[in-house]
Amino acid sequence: MRNLTMKVFAKIPPILWFSIITFLGLTSFNIIRSYGNPNQTYFSGGNNQLILDVSNADKKQGIESFKQGDYDEAIKHFKASLSQQKNDPETLIYLNNAKINQDFFKIAVVVPINSNPNIAQEILRGVAQAQDEINQQGGIQGKPLKVLIADDGNLPENAQKIATQVVADETVLAVVGHNASNASLAAAPIYQKAGVVMITPTSFANNLSGLGDYIFRVVPSTKAMVQPLVNYFTRLPQNPNLAICYDSEAPDNVSFKDEFLATFLAKGGKLVPLVCDLSSPNFDPQKMINQARSQGAKGLLMTPHIDRLDQVIALAQANQNQLTLLSSPTLYTIKTLEQGQNQVKGLVVSIPWHPQSNKNNAFITDSYRYWGARVNWRTAMAYDATWAIAKGLRQNSTREGLKNTLHNPSFFVSGATGTFKFLPSGDRLGSAYLAQIQSTGQGNDFVLLKSP
User: Which pLDDT score, from 0 to 100, does residue 208 have?
Assistant: First the structure.
């Protein structure tokens, strides 16, 4: 994309300029193979390993026993596997599924295992912990909860095919997912038409709001999440000139960019006219940083797709800690810390939850006991989504009844993020926090910031 001259930019108001550039039926644990690759597995409830990066002999043997219907043997091996790899949510889900020998309620969780196994596991940890707690507490109306895992790789076409097959299984009462907004937007109309509740824990594109009365999300709105980030930058003791690099193919981060820009300009901020699309095949990080600095930028907002973080890390490396770096919740990842290293120090992200945001919540200590490490906002959101479904099913265990219950103004859930309820649009009432990458005694980490 060719840059316009500063002379042309000067004639166009910033907000106007930016706008311009801008199954068949499943059995309880059936494995579905499709999408052009007969060797790729997209569904499993225990009889297939989807996360190949986390494995050991006991996990493999447990899955083999599960396939053969020897659930007692599967339980033994799954327990042994977890003693070796405590933080493996796939195995915990399979263990709880193997324990079920009676009538049950079933949900599906859709995650991007193929494209982003780390993000998939973060979401699955929330679902697995909730399932384990629900079943230990006697289940739902006395029935245990089974979980079917599906992998859409964050691809819209896969998301649609998975949704079509999930809704065809009448025993699936609800779905936790999807991850990226482009996948959620593709699948949501299918769930809406079939009358199956979908609660996404991580998709924050604005156009998901009000998409249908079966579509919900537990992540706060982008408007709620941009406000503290705008406040942080505009209160810094520097000229509030900002450049923006965004991924035009990531609907959630386009929404974040749009909301941020509107709020930023309303507070008197100034936009540096930089044409920077992270999805462009000609993306040049050093060129973007040089242009931003030469035009007087003091900060850079980066809003990438979750599966395309390499471009943002390259931007941070090119930046050499010169511009103040800001981002959406997307950049709150282990990859950002590991690959960005000291070049991402100082990066500030807006997030819906942080382990230090509510230290008195039992979820903090419980999640550490489950996984042996601190979890992040995706785990907390997925946990809340699963518990919302479970508590809704306790009141009405049909697909339509669950939808009506979630919409009831008196319905609320006490979860990892505190007590919450859903708005008529399917959004949740919620606020956001800021975290900054800082040096700690054990390397760099996302540290909760106090309000500026």
Answer: 93
